[in-house]
Amino acid sequence: MKLQIEVNAATKPSVSRNVLEEVFRAFLSEMHVHKKSSVSVAFVSEKEIQKLNKKYRKKNKPTDVLSFSEVEKFPLASLKKSPSYLGEIAICSVVAKKQAEEKKHSFRKEVEILTVHSMLHLLGYDHKTEKQAGIMEALEEKIVKKIKIKSHKTKL
Question: Domains of the chain by range and CATH?
Answer without folding.
Answer: 2-146 (3.40.390.30)
